[in-house]
Amino acid sequence: MKESLGAQTMSFPLPAYLVGSYDENGKANLMTAAWGGIVCSTPPCLAVAIQPSRLTHPSIVKNKAFTVGIPNSRLAEAVDYAGLVSGRKHDKFAATGLTPVKSQLVNAPSADDGPVILECELYQSLELGSHTLFVGRIVDVKAEVGLKTDSGALDLSKVDPLIFNCGGDYRQVGPAVGQAFSIGKNLKA
Amino acid sequence: MKESLGAQTMSFPLPAYLVGSYDENGKANLMTAAWGGIVCSTPPCLAVAIQPSRLTHPSIVKNKAFTVGIPNSRLAEAVDYAGLVSGRKHDKFAATGLTPVKSQLVNAPSADDGPVILECELYQSLELGSHTLFVGRIVDVKAEVGLKTDSGALDLSKVDPLIFNCGGDYRQVGPAVGQAFSIGKNLKA
């Protein structure tokens, strides 16, 4: 039996993205974002939802670019910090010890310390209410050397991505349940 | 050191949503979607990206409503099946044994077997290329009784949400890393 929890933003799993951008003075900044995801295959796109009051909002509008870092569990403290304070008052790279790197493809920085970075050009945006949805065209994915399996995909256990639990904590990824595009074939008979 | 993987749709973690809708004949259908996420707080919104060729696409356009089921790991086989075949040729509820329930709030069905259901009214849509992004206003969240912690949040370990790994398999959620909006305070000093 189900109970009503009301109209709220609840979804599992949620990402813990580190969104990188340059502010109007060219200072590299990061913000943590759990609202967003992959939204198109052709062109490959990722969207992040950001409130206009956040420093990252005008930075993306001005530079028409951002990066999305996929942090691993070792970066949980830095990820949480980047969601607690504003880049207007703090240098988040200095405070966390993360290493800023300028993308060679788009006008945005990223933290080189994480396993995977998506470099995005602003493609479309949509005003939804409290948040603007910035849709970025993914121009490249950069991954730390040594994370690939024999098939060329990234090994999820090596990536060790951080998961944001809207119930209150950060989690690691757990055990495998079954192969995608495969285990469902049992039901086709 | 990082290597380039090219422009591709890669993000961790990804959800494994079960999107519920009625087709033009009123038949309840489900499709599996990993492209999407929460995109706004006020109003609370969740977006899913769907190709125009999929049966779910005209169903959402016609009914201006859909549900998003958060499946648990026990439903992995059904989730995978719902992404392998089309509702035009198959009754996915019958094939999987999932139980269709009509939402009392929006004109869309869901599978009652999962732990959490989001009931959504179509709020905005955006053409991105291969996919249309349907932004739904979340009008209610329904959760199985017994999943809440003492604080009223959902217990992630009890929800046991399925994670889609774009590297190839489904995963469960793993161990806790730290408390959100808390562990980063160490770096504020």
Largest sheet of chain A: 7 strands, antiparallel
- Number of separate strands of chain A: 13
**Could you say which structural class the secondary elements and strand pairing of chain A correspond to?**
mainly beta
CATH class of chain A: Mainly Beta
> What is the correct CATH architecture of chain A?
Roll
Largest interface: A-B, 103 and 103 residues
CATH superfamily of chain A: Electron Transport, Fmn-binding Protein, Chain A
Mean pLDDT, all residues of chain A? 96
Question: What is the ordering of alpha helices and beta strands of chain A?
Answer: EEEEEEHEHHEEEEHEE
The domain tally of chain A reads: 1
The coarse overall form of chain A would be globular
Amino-to-carboxy terminus distance of chain A: 31 Å
Percentage of residues in strands of chain A: 35-45%
User: Roughly how much helix do the residues of chain A carry, as a percent range?
Assistant: 10-25%
Stretches with pLDDT under 50, minimum 5 residues of chain A: none
Quaternary class: homodimer
The spatial strand order of the largest sheet of chain A comes to: 4-3-7-10-11-6-5
Using only C-alpha atoms, the radius of gyration of chain A works out to: 17 Å
The third-level CATH topology of chain A is: Pnp Oxidase, Chain A
Number of helices of chain A: 4
